[in-house]
Amino acid sequence: MLDDSHIKRISKGDRVAFGELHEGLYQRMFYYVYKMLHDKEQSEDIIQEAFVLYWSKRNNFDNLLAVKTYLYTVIKNKILAFLRDTTNRKRILESIEWEESVTGDYVLITAEICGQVQQAVHELPAQTRRVIELSMQDMTVEKIAEEMCVSPNTVKTLKKVGYQTLRERLKHLRALLLFLSVG
Is residue 116 part of a domain? Predict the structure, then answer.
């Protein structure tokens, strides 16, 4: 789990902590950029550039929130620059109906929620995590049981426990989910 201690270690040049930060934030950042650009390679490039810039300024940060704010600001500016400079600007802008104040915030919040859900699922015990992951792929209890070589009752129990654990760990997200459903 990422916290301020990672940022302090990174400010001292700790590449392992930097790798953990990159791994912990990459998926949600990719979601954010890709939803805006619909271009996998460009999305990856923008995220990479943001992390390189952060590394060069790592001594200026002492907490995770400041780093996330910095990275998302850099990413947002790079997205805007890309859209401004690309010959396909009009097509891209029309396809995503760019409304920075609403769409950008919505995607940013969604990316953050997805990242936290992904982290919470990753922290479940291995067998429970596998049941939840397969359930999220719309697999039936019977198919999951067959895939994992366990009984359907075991799958049902693991699924119930897994979702209860996730509800408890992610209860702080309820207000954000309400915001997303209203918007």
Answer: no
3-state DSSP call for residue 88?
A: coil
Long-range contacts of residues 40-43, Cβ cutoff 8 Å, at least 24 apart: 42/82
Are residues 90 and 138 both part of a single domain? Answer: no
Please check whether residue 68 is in contact with residue 77, taking contact to mean a CB–CB distance below 8 angstroms.
Answer: no
Domain count along the chain: 2
- Among the listed residues 11, 120, 14, 117, the one whose alpha carbon sits nearest the alpha carbon of residue 64: 11
If asked whether residues 6 and 77 sit together in one domain, one would say yes
pLDDT in tens, 146-173: 989 999 999 999 999 998 998 888 887 7
151: helix, coil or strand? coil
Closest by Cα among 148, 145, 108, 129 to 28: 108
Query: Is the predicted pLDDT of residue 66 greater than 70, yes or no?
Result: yes
The helix, strand and coil proportions of the chain, stated in percent and rounded to the nearest 5, come to: 85, 0, 15
**Per-chain mean pLDDT for the chain:** 83
Residues 70 and 139 in one domain: no
Q: How many residues does the chain have?
A: 183
Cβ neighbors of 139 (< 8 A, separation 6 or more) are 147
Which backbone phi and psi does 87 adopt, to 5 degrees? -70, -20
8 Å CB contact between 147 and 119? no
